[in-house]
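User:
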Amino acid sequence: MTDDPHRSSQPASPEPFSSNPIRLSVREWLIALGVVAIIAITLPGIWWALTPFAPDADYRVPYDQSEDYWLYRHFARTAGAGEGVLLIGDSVIWGQYVARDQTLSHHLNGLAGADRFVNLGLDGTHPIALEGLIRHYGRAIRDRDVILHLNLLWLSSPQTDLSAEGEVRLNHPRLLPQVSPRIPSYTESVSGRISVVLERQVRLFEWARHLRSTGFDNTNLQVWTAEHPYENPLGRIAARLPDRDEHQEPGVRSAAGRGEAGQSLPWVDRESSLQWMGFERLVEVLRNRGNRIYVIIGPLNEHMLDQGSRDEYRRLLADIGTALVELDLDYSLLPLLHCAGGS
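Assistant: Predicted structure:
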């Protein structure tokens, strides 16, 4: 204790008042960011290494994981490391409304007498989405024989072609081009588009969506905990893939379920079709990676069309055939199935 009235009893260098959070120096911040970056880069890979994955000959991405592109990336990597023929396309290749042992790949394997064909189809993937899928998540598909399906139903109207302005129900919007080319039917906000681009570049975000798909019923954590207030969310996180078979809608879709006979479809011309442009970009991506492509066109139930729409479809088919030849692509047009007692 001092009697000097001019000396302060306070510390010479008092700490500024602050709340309780830890304050880090610049060096400590850099170390913390480095640790977070290492975890973000390595954790998804470590997680996959711990995940049992041994797909059999009839494996396909489960229906409930149709938008789990992290799973598709690793399935494509596994398939790309083999020697089989890869089948790429939408629900026709994937096998909508049929079991795994009734798909095209299964029957081709039966005809070949060996497991040579792999089902890399994904439900609901129109050509523009397929281009995004293979460009961003199918990079392991290189120097392979590829059977590529072209479904002209995606050119059957401006809505399915995604060239219609305004709100349209979209399949796989996160696979669409987020900047260019412009998709008139895609009305996502700027922040939403940035989120998609970041997910493609940062595997941690892609892996987090995978966990949502496999453990939280494709909902975010807040929604899931509100719906399951007595369950521990940590118990839903495990290095495993779903052990259930893919979801199937009940029954088999009949012709009546696809609409009345005599439908009139407003076909989009190939030269102005966004879906056709997406198909051309898809072919370019596959070729640039050394793949050898064979195209299958169809099938389409012409019996459900009126005469005018059927004539337009056949003109479109001829134009598509000419364009495939100009692209130096071999192709097959699946034959029209005839109704019992029909012509």
